[in-house]
Amino acid sequence: MSSKRADVAIIMGSQSDWATMSHAADTLAALGVSHEKRIVSAHRTPERLYEFARGAKAAGFKIIIAGAGGAAHLPGMTAALTPLPVFGVPVESKALSGQDSLLSIVQMPAGIPVGTLAIGKAGAVNAALLAAAVLALGDDDLAARLDAWRAAQTAKVADAPADAP
Ligand SMILES: Nc1c(C(=O)O)ncn1[C@@H]1O[C@H](COP(=O)(O)O)[C@@H](O)[C@H]1O
Fold this sequence. Notes:
By secondary structure, this protein is an alpha/beta fold.
Protein backbone atom coordinates (compact mmCIF):
# COMPACT_ATOMS: atom_id res chain seq x y z
CA MET A 1 0.00 0.00 0.00
CA SER A 2 1.42 3.41 -0.97
CA SER A 3 1.88 6.20 1.59
CA LYS A 4 -0.56 8.49 -0.29
CA ARG A 5 -3.98 7.07 0.46
CA ALA A 6 -6.67 6.83 -2.19
CA ASP A 7 -9.37 9.52 -2.29
CA VAL A 8 -12.25 7.10 -1.79
CA ALA A 9 -12.59 4.19 0.60
CA ILE A 10 -15.15 1.56 -0.38
CA ILE A 11 -16.05 -0.50 2.66
CA MET A 12 -18.55 -3.32 2.91
CA GLY A 13 -19.92 -5.55 5.61
CA SER A 14 -19.04 -8.85 3.98
CA GLN A 15 -17.19 -10.36 1.07
CA SER A 16 -20.65 -11.30 -0.22
CA ASP A 17 -21.35 -7.59 -0.85
CA TRP A 18 -18.61 -7.39 -3.47
CA ALA A 19 -20.95 -8.45 -6.32
CA THR A 20 -22.77 -5.17 -5.66
CA MET A 21 -19.93 -2.94 -4.48
CA SER A 22 -17.67 -3.89 -7.40
CA HIS A 23 -19.90 -1.61 -9.50
CA ALA A 24 -18.80 1.34 -7.36
CA ALA A 25 -15.16 0.32 -7.79
CA ASP A 26 -15.56 -0.13 -11.57
CA THR A 27 -17.21 3.27 -11.91
CA LEU A 28 -14.49 5.01 -9.91
CA ALA A 29 -11.85 3.22 -11.97
CA ALA A 30 -13.53 4.33 -15.20
CA LEU A 31 -13.35 7.92 -13.96
CA GLY A 32 -9.75 7.64 -12.79
CA VAL A 33 -10.62 8.15 -9.13
CA SER A 34 -8.24 6.42 -6.72
CA HIS A 35 -9.93 4.06 -4.30
CA GLU A 36 -9.28 1.29 -1.82
CA LYS A 37 -11.67 -1.40 -0.72
CA ARG A 38 -11.95 -3.40 2.45
CA ILE A 39 -14.28 -5.57 4.46
CA VAL A 40 -15.34 -3.89 7.69
CA SER A 41 -18.36 -4.87 9.76
CA ALA A 42 -19.92 -2.92 12.60
CA HIS A 43 -21.34 -6.20 13.85
CA ARG A 44 -18.62 -8.74 13.22
CA THR A 45 -15.47 -6.61 13.42
CA PRO A 46 -16.44 -3.57 15.53
CA GLU A 47 -12.86 -2.83 16.53
CA ARG A 48 -11.72 -2.83 12.91
CA LEU A 49 -14.55 -0.43 12.09
CA TYR A 50 -13.59 1.88 14.95
CA GLU A 51 -9.95 1.91 13.94
CA PHE A 52 -10.73 2.45 10.25
CA ALA A 53 -13.37 5.17 10.68
CA ARG A 54 -11.49 7.07 13.39
CA GLY A 55 -8.34 7.13 11.24
CA ALA A 56 -9.88 7.56 7.79
CA LYS A 57 -9.50 11.33 7.50
CA ALA A 58 -5.96 11.38 8.86
CA ALA A 59 -5.12 8.56 6.47
CA GLY A 60 -6.02 10.85 3.56
CA PHE A 61 -9.36 9.50 2.45
CA LYS A 62 -11.84 12.19 1.39
CA ILE A 63 -15.05 10.20 0.93
CA ILE A 64 -16.29 6.85 2.22
CA ILE A 65 -18.72 4.62 0.33
CA ALA A 66 -20.19 2.02 2.69
CA GLY A 67 -22.29 -0.90 1.46
CA ALA A 68 -24.12 -3.36 3.67
CA GLY A 69 -27.16 -5.58 3.63
CA GLY A 70 -29.84 -6.64 6.09
CA ALA A 71 -29.44 -4.88 9.43
CA ALA A 72 -27.09 -2.48 7.69
CA HIS A 73 -25.57 -0.47 10.51
CA LEU A 74 -22.18 -0.05 8.88
CA PRO A 75 -22.80 3.25 7.02
CA GLY A 76 -24.40 4.94 10.03
CA MET A 77 -21.79 3.74 12.51
CA THR A 78 -19.05 4.87 10.13
CA ALA A 79 -20.67 8.30 9.83
CA ALA A 80 -20.80 8.52 13.62
CA LEU A 81 -17.05 8.00 13.84
CA THR A 82 -15.72 10.25 11.05
CA PRO A 83 -16.27 13.79 9.78
CA LEU A 84 -15.83 12.57 6.18
CA PRO A 85 -18.89 12.37 3.90
CA VAL A 86 -20.36 8.86 3.93
CA PHE A 87 -22.49 7.49 1.09
CA GLY A 88 -24.49 4.39 2.01
CA VAL A 89 -25.39 1.65 -0.45
CA PRO A 90 -28.16 -0.75 0.61
CA VAL A 91 -27.14 -4.20 -0.62
CA GLU A 92 -30.04 -6.36 -1.78
CA SER A 93 -30.75 -8.95 0.90
CA LYS A 94 -32.25 -12.38 0.25
CA ALA A 95 -34.93 -12.26 2.92
CA LEU A 96 -36.37 -8.79 2.31
CA SER A 97 -34.96 -7.79 -1.10
CA GLY A 98 -32.93 -4.93 0.35
CA GLN A 99 -35.87 -3.09 1.94
CA ASP A 100 -34.29 -3.89 5.31
CA SER A 101 -30.91 -2.58 4.14
CA LEU A 102 -32.46 0.61 2.78
CA LEU A 103 -34.46 1.38 5.89
CA SER A 104 -31.50 0.59 8.16
CA ILE A 105 -29.36 3.11 6.30
CA VAL A 106 -31.69 5.91 5.32
CA GLN A 107 -33.44 6.97 8.51
CA MET A 108 -30.51 8.44 10.41
CA PRO A 109 -31.12 10.72 13.36
CA ALA A 110 -30.55 14.42 12.61
CA GLY A 111 -26.92 15.30 13.16
CA ILE A 112 -25.24 12.21 11.70
CA PRO A 113 -25.88 12.21 7.94
CA VAL A 114 -25.49 9.29 5.54
CA GLY A 115 -26.17 10.06 1.89
CA THR A 116 -28.29 7.03 1.05
CA LEU A 117 -28.42 5.65 -2.47
CA ALA A 118 -30.71 3.17 -4.21
CA ILE A 119 -30.71 -0.56 -3.46
CA GLY A 120 -28.16 -2.66 -5.32
CA LYS A 121 -26.12 -1.96 -8.46
CA ALA A 122 -27.74 1.40 -9.26
CA GLY A 123 -26.90 2.62 -5.77
CA ALA A 124 -23.32 1.44 -6.02
CA VAL A 125 -22.79 3.15 -9.40
CA ASN A 126 -24.44 6.34 -8.20
CA ALA A 127 -22.45 6.42 -4.98
CA ALA A 128 -19.30 6.40 -7.11
CA LEU A 129 -20.66 9.14 -9.39
CA LEU A 130 -21.58 11.30 -6.40
CA ALA A 131 -18.15 10.78 -4.88
CA ALA A 132 -16.58 11.78 -8.20
CA ALA A 133 -18.82 14.85 -8.43
CA VAL A 134 -17.75 16.01 -4.98
CA LEU A 135 -14.07 15.46 -5.75
CA ALA A 136 -14.50 17.20 -9.12
CA LEU A 137 -15.36 20.45 -7.33
CA GLY A 138 -11.64 20.78 -6.66
CA ASP A 139 -10.28 18.94 -9.68
CA ASP A 140 -10.90 20.32 -13.18
CA ASP A 141 -9.45 17.24 -14.91
CA LEU A 142 -11.82 14.96 -13.04
CA ALA A 143 -14.71 17.34 -13.82
CA ALA A 144 -13.88 16.98 -17.53
CA ARG A 145 -13.76 13.17 -17.24
CA LEU A 146 -17.11 13.19 -15.45
CA ASP A 147 -18.62 15.38 -18.19
CA ALA A 148 -17.27 12.96 -20.81
CA TRP A 149 -18.68 9.97 -18.89
CA ARG A 150 -22.11 11.59 -18.81
CA ALA A 151 -21.95 12.56 -22.49
CA ALA A 152 -21.05 8.98 -23.38
CA GLN A 153 -24.01 7.73 -21.37
CA THR A 154 -26.33 10.15 -23.15
CA ALA A 155 -24.92 9.11 -26.52
CA LYS A 156 -25.50 5.45 -25.69
CA VAL A 157 -29.17 6.14 -24.98
CA ALA A 158 -29.50 8.49 -27.95
CA ASP A 159 -28.02 5.88 -30.30
CA ALA A 160 -30.56 3.27 -29.24
CA PRO A 161 -33.92 3.21 -30.99
CA ALA A 162 -36.29 5.71 -29.37
CA ASP A 163 -39.35 3.53 -29.99
CA ALA A 164 -40.20 0.86 -27.48
CA PRO A 165 -39.74 -2.76 -28.66
N1 LIG B 1 -25.02 -5.26 7.56
C1 LIG B 1 -23.88 -5.89 7.85
C2 LIG B 1 -22.87 -5.48 8.72
C3 LIG B 1 -22.85 -4.18 9.45
O1 LIG B 1 -23.77 -3.36 9.23
O2 LIG B 1 -21.92 -3.98 10.22
N2 LIG B 1 -21.91 -6.40 8.72
C4 LIG B 1 -22.27 -7.37 7.87
N3 LIG B 1 -23.47 -7.07 7.34
C5 LIG B 1 -24.19 -7.71 6.26
O3 LIG B 1 -24.55 -9.04 6.43
C6 LIG B 1 -24.90 -9.52 5.13
C7 LIG B 1 -24.70 -10.99 5.05
O4 LIG B 1 -23.33 -11.27 5.20
P1 LIG B 1 -22.78 -12.76 4.90
O5 LIG B 1 -23.03 -13.02 3.43
O6 LIG B 1 -21.30 -12.68 5.21
O7 LIG B 1 -23.52 -13.70 5.80
C8 LIG B 1 -24.05 -8.72 4.14
O8 LIG B 1 -24.88 -8.06 3.19
C9 LIG B 1 -23.32 -7.74 5.03
O9 LIG B 1 -23.24 -6.43 4.50
